[in-house]
Amino acid sequence: MKHSVFFLLALLLMSCGSRQDKENSNLDYAAFANALDSIMEVDQGIRILLSEARQSGNEVPDSLFEKMDIIDASNQAWVKSRLEEYGWPGKSQIGENAALALFLVIQHAEFNDIETYYPQLQQLADNGEAHPAHAAMMLDRMLMYQGKKQVYGTQASGLLRADGSFVIWPIENPESVNERRIKAGFPDSVEDYAASLQAFYDPMEPLPKNEKQGQ
């Protein structure tokens, strides 16, 4: 059964790749990249404001979260309309900055969108056309939303503690997580990463019971 599932998945990925090559041939890469560069500025701009608000020690106003939701919804609608028509382009076609922006827009999307587009991103990463770290982060987020343990330790949540403190989401086989992080291209250990997020890290962190995570 497992072999059959793997075979079907392989066929699906091959199909996505063939469709992607055909559809991308009609995409204006320069215009797409320029638009993504602008999207990146807006995407990161609101998150910088949120980070600064959190660091101030004061309560973050709801208006900032509402503004972020509006920005994300607009960015996602534009990007998804292109991905549905052309597929996910490689970084050699649109450049490093645009590839990062494209990843961030989908990474900030709803679970169904992440689940839909992750296979394309992973295939590109396997072919050297996307950063393995981007695929790793998207996989971790997808697993977290499914209520499963993550692989690379890239996701944190404020829903694991009663006090709402930021905690690294539970990790599968935490004893080897830093080896996996190195292979995926992450520059730091999970311990250093947690410190940079000001998040608590417990390698034995249990999964919450019967709860799937939202954004």
Per DSSP E runs of 2 or more residues, the count of β-strands stands at 2
The oligomeric status of these chains comes to single chain
Order of helices and strands: HHHHHHHEEHH
Q: What is the rounded Rg?
A: 18 Å
Mean pLDDT: 87
Strand order of the largest sheet: 1-2
Low-confidence stretches: 1-22
Helices and strands, with pairings:
Layout: H1 2-24, H2 29-55, H3 62-86, H4 91-94, H5 96-107, H6 111-126, H7 132-145, E1 156-157, E2 167-168, H8 177-184, H9 190-197
Antiparallel strand pairs: 1-2
Task: State the main characteristics.
mainly alpha, 2 strands, 2 domains, 215 residues
Report on the architecture of this protein.
- The protein has 215 residues and is an all-alpha fold.
- It has two domains: 2-130, no CATH class; 149-215, no CATH class.
- 64% of the residues lie in helices and 2% in strands.
- The chain contains nine helices and two strands.
- A two-stranded antiparallel ribbon has the order 1-2.
- Helix 2 (29-55) runs antiparallel to helix 3, helix 2 (29-55) crosses helix 5 and helix 6 runs antiparallel to helix 7.
- The longest helix is centred in the N-terminal third of the chain and has 27 residues, at 29-55.
- It is globular.
- The two termini are 33 Å apart.
- The model is unreliable at 1-22 (pLDDT under 50).
Give a brief outline of the structure:
Helices cover about 65% and strands about 0% of the residues.
